[in-house]
């Protein structure tokens, strides 16, 4: 018998946080048909701490990967809040990752692997997705990483 998504999260020591409320004029998730469009999630943890700074400007790749992993956790929290049960996830369709980085930093994909790897670890093949990893000059709150997602649900 295979594990549920909630059991996999628990085995990894992950407790989904209560999703944060929008800080501007938008909604955290829009559902159209069987697709959820999850607004960009920054790497805010359950204690309200955000990983900040620029990759290539003092923030190491492993710190960025951990920030991207936290973004994945926040995406899952938003999905659960939207549909009530993570077992309704059919597939993570697409991720767009924004990495706060210096102009010469070129390892955005390595940073975004923190998000992608967690989604595949927790969701299996349902977590495999198309992805963009974009370097950007600044993010809200000086966040190191922000990730938005498109998720198909039942």
Describe the 3D structure:
With 154 residues, this protein is an alpha+beta fold. It is 30% helix and 26% strand. The protein is built from three helices and five strands. The protein has a five-stranded mixed sheet with strand order 1-2-5-3-4. Helix 2 packs across helix 3. The longest helix has 23 residues, at 61-83.
Topology:
Elements: H1 5-11, E1 29-32, E2 35-42, H2 61-83, E3 89-100, H3 108-123, E4 130-136, E5 145-153
Parallel strand pairs: 3-4
Antiparallel strand pairs: 1-2, 2-5, 3-5
Which features would summarize this protein structure in a list?
single chain; 154 residues; alpha+beta; five-stranded mixed sheet; 3 helices; 30% helix
Sum this structure up briefly.
The protein is α+β, with helices and mostly antiparallel strands. The chain has helices spanning 5-11, 61-83, 108-123; strands at residues 29-32, 35-42, 89-100, 130-136, 145-153. The longest helix is centred in the middle third of the chain and has 23 residues, at 61-83.
Q: Could you estimate the helical fraction of the residues in percent? A: 25-40%
Mean pLDDT across the residues is 96
Number of helical elements: 3
Order of helices and strands: HEEHEHEE
User: How many strand elements?
Assistant: 5
For the largest beta sheet, what order do the strands appear in spatially? Answer: 1-2-5-3-4
Distance between the terminal alpha carbons, to the nearest Å?
Answer: 21 Å
Q: Based on CA inertia axes, which overall geometry fits?
A: globular
Major sheet attributes: 5 strands, mixed
What is the rounded Rg? Answer: 15 Å
């Amino acid at each position: 018998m295979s594990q549920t998504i909630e059991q996999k999260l628990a085995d990894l020591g992950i407790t989904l946080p209560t999703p944060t409320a929008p800080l501007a004029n938008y909604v955290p998730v829009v559902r159209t048909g069987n697709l959820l469009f999850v607004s960009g999630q920054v790497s805010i943890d359950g204690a309200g701490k955000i990983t900040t700074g620029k990759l290539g400007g003092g923030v190491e790749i492993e710190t960025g990967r951990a920030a991207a992993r936290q973004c994945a956790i926040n995406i899952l929290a938003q999905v659960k809040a939207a549909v009530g049960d993570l077992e309704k996830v059919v597939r993570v369709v697409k991720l767009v990752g924004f990495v706060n980085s210096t102009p010469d930093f070129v390892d955005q994909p390595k940073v975004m692997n923190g998000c992608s790897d967690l989604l595949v670890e927790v969701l299996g093949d349902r977590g495999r997705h198309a992805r963009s990893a974009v370097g950007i000059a600044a993010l809200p709150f000086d966040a190191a990483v922000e990730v938005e997602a498109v998720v198909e649900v039942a």
